[in-house]
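Holo model, fe (ii) ion. Inputs:
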Amino acid sequence: MSKTIENLKEALHGESLAKFKYELYSDKAEQENLLEIANLFRAIAFAESIHIKNHLRALSVILGSEIILEDIISIDKKEVKSKISSTNKNLKDAINGEIYETKKMYKNFEKYAKKENSDVAELSFSLAREAEGIHAELFSNYLSKLQDNENFDSVNIYVCQICGNVELMTVPTTCPVCDHNDKFFKKVE
Ligand SMILES: [Fe+2]
Ligand SMILES: [Fe+2]
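Output:
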């Protein structure tokens, strides 16, 4: 189980960093008057907080006591702030992070969780992996629009509070990632 405990901590660090970055990227997009992109960053920051909650629960189950995020993770906020760039570059950074998580990190973590018979960690990793793939796609679509100078229509964004899946415009009857029904989706304001 030791590898999975380590991996949950690494995932918690990555998710916390992504959440903090996306909140700053949202503010930056707002300053650049890219309001729809600002909304997407805010929504996906909230989605990362769902992954944090799930991973913390898994870690607490494995360790047999309630784990508090701040006790095990610290983010160098000053350093993150110093690396904020233009929204164009921030989107590229977000896409790279999401692709790394969905294609490499979580895949690898799932493999160890399976080997170490930790169903709770395996499920948490696999939900996050699928959601990160969707995040990558959404960021890529928005980046293409920005680069092509297309107009952004104002859309409602919904986040599944079970798995961190993000849906635009309408809520599906069943979440395609975690199979929970539409009442678990929250509209991001
Ligand atoms: Fe993500
Ligand atoms: Fe879901």
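The beta strands are 157-160, 166-168, 185-187. The radius of gyration is 16 Å.
Archived with the compound record.
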